[in-house]
Amino acid sequence: MTDLNSLTVADARDALRKGETTAVELTEACLSAIDAAGALNAFVHHTPDMARDMAQAADARIKSGDATALTGIPLGIKDVFCVKGVPSQAASRILQGFRPEYESTVTQNLWNAGAVMLGKLNQDEFAMGSANESSCYGPAVNPWKVDDRQLTPGGSSGGSAAAVAADLCLAATGTDTGGSIRQPAAFTGIVGLKPTYGRVSRWGVIAYASSLDQAGPMTKTVRDAAIMLGAMASVDPQDSTSADVAVPDYESLLTGDIRGKRIGIPREYRVEGMPPEIDALWHKGAEMLRDAGAEIVDISLPHTKYALPAYYVIAPAEASSNLARYDGVRYGHRAKLGQGDGITEMYEKTRAEGFGLEVQRRVMIGTYVLSAGFYDAYYNRARKVRALIKRDFENAFAQGIDAILAPTTPTAAFGIGAMDSSDPVQMYLNDVFTVTLNLAGLPGIAVPVGLDKQGLPLGLQMFGKPFEEGELLNHALVLERAAGFVAKPDRWW
Amino acid sequence: MSITEDQARKVAHLARIAVDDAALPALARELNGILHFMEQLNEVDVTGVEPMTGVTPMRLKRREDVVTTGEMADRILSNAPDAREGFFAVPKVVE
Asked: Exposed, middle or buried: residue B42 (CB in 10 Å: 0-12, 13-18, 19+)?
């Protein structure tokens, strides 16, 4: 039998139901794998006692015949989710020592389903970054490696991606504000789903940009993403933007039949300087869907080019407002004050010490674009462009397009520190294929499709219609089956 | 538009982030680079377009205006860097 920690959620569920293994055994296998994987820096807060208690409770529940698909399944949780009594600091020094007195809705839903908490996962500070390098815990490391360089697992959900790819957990939670689930999924050869805005509650998820943030699953397979989403999603009175849409049984919607569906190929995603390998992969993906009976249609999303600058106005603006709460008064870090320092010095020193450079940069950009005299020129203009970006997608769907196929990232994983010398804008370009979806609030899924010539995973993503995650997952399943991506990183850690 | 060192100092103060004077030139340069990138947005014709506030076409939820929770001062204060006698404590605000 394969190592228990390398099972998919679906296979583990089936094995648990048949009595072939126990939640305790699964959990111990993951805890051992985590202990041996310190070099990946994926898990940053370990909760083995909690995991063992929850696993025992899960085994009792399975015996009593009251199990859900996630009962006894060991998961990793991105640090950005508040878990009661467990350090939850969104990888920021400013939340050092913070132990929430409450539970995020997503994690509560998972625990209610019987899932097991293994610990908290590394990420970029406040989910701001594309390489997991802006973390107070230091960078997470990609389990994929082709030479002596250490590669980034992507960001911001880099710890989640590394942990799933290295079989440290069966699945993990992530959040996606501009691509933070899909880009790391692509860099590590796993599946990452960003649901429709409003599908998954934001309650208890430490906020970055509230009109863009959405939590979702990071898994080994599309089926696992369907199972995880079903448990994470809910209609939540605690989140005023949670949509009143019933949560379907996503797994039952996985038929593998997409005959007659129309798949859009947006011409604006063929960007200058895109490596030929990515372009070839994209063609291959379209062929796979055509072979499965779908119709491939060229479409235009004319405002795509403006998504990135619009995002880098809107997200920092919302961040500057959301992060105003970190003032050294109510929780987390407070700077040591000098003689005669008043409350303003306390705020300014606390935030200078507590926030990393990228967070400071975004808070200041956000402050600037919202300040008197610039609000219309930057913020309002960006919000208008956002409306046009959303309209592009609406037009495509109105013309009978069922899903859209695009590359997930412009490159495969790059070396840790490779972006250090470049300016922030170069780093932001990593998000070129992913931010459009957040601006439009649509669901999207990254699926591993192949390896590049160095042997690193490359992914494609599919976009779906609002609240049609079931259909989107079904399209992704077809892509996954046709691609037959089974490669795993060689263990070096 | 371009940010001067003085404006960078002002933005840092508005954001309540202490920045050394020596770091201001680099900060201004960086902010300028980002703002320059954003200026692409000026190419877009946005005449007659309403700025988007939320992506889902739904009315903000409402509820009865009643107290739904409370009586948990201890839990609220439990993470404070400095809490005394049921209050958050801060440096002197008023002379």
From this structure: exposed
**C-alpha atoms less than 13 angstroms from C-alpha of B78 in its C-beta half-sphere:** 12
Give me the residue label for tokens 């030929």. Answer: A276
Q: How far apart are CA A120 and CA A122, in angstroms?
A: 7
A 178-237 near B (Cβ less than 8 A): 196-198, 211, 237
> What strands, in cross-sheet order, belong to the sheet with A262-266?
A43-46, A116-121, A74-78, A171-175, A215-219, A191-194, A444-451, A457-463, A403-407, A262-266, A295-299
What would the pLDDT profile of A57-85 be if each residue is shown by its tens digit? Answer: 999 999 999 999 999 999 999 999 999 99
Angstrom distance (rounded) from CA A217 to CA A229 = 6
Give B79's contacts in chain A (Cβ within 8 Å).
Answer: 97-99, 101, 330-332
Answer whether A81's CB lies under 8 Å from A204's CB. yes
**Are the beta carbons of A306 and B16 separated by less than 8 Å?**
no
Q: How confident is the model at residue A264 (pLDDT cuts 50, 70, 90)?
A: very high
Other beta carbons within 10 angstroms of residue A370's beta carbon come to: 18
Domain, as residue range, for B16 = 5-41
Total domain count, chain B: 1
Chain B residue with the nearest C-alpha to that of A335:
B81
Domains of chain A: 1-493 (3.90.1300.10)
A94: how many CB neighbours lie within 10 A of its CB? 26
* Packing angle, helices A222-232 and A469-483, rounded to 10: 160
Across-strand partners of A477?
none
The answer to whether residue B28 sits within a structural domain is yes
In the block, residue with structure tokens 């004077």: B21
Q: Does B15 reach chain A within 8 Å, measured CB to CB?
A: yes
| Phi, psi (degrees; rounded to nearest 5) at A297 | -130, 130
Is B94 within 8 Å of chain A by CB?
Answer: no
pTM check: above 0.90: yes
State pLDDT tens for residues B11-42: 999 999 999 999 999 999 999 999 999 999 99
The answer to the question of residue B54 being in a domain is no
Look up the ipTM and state it.
0.95
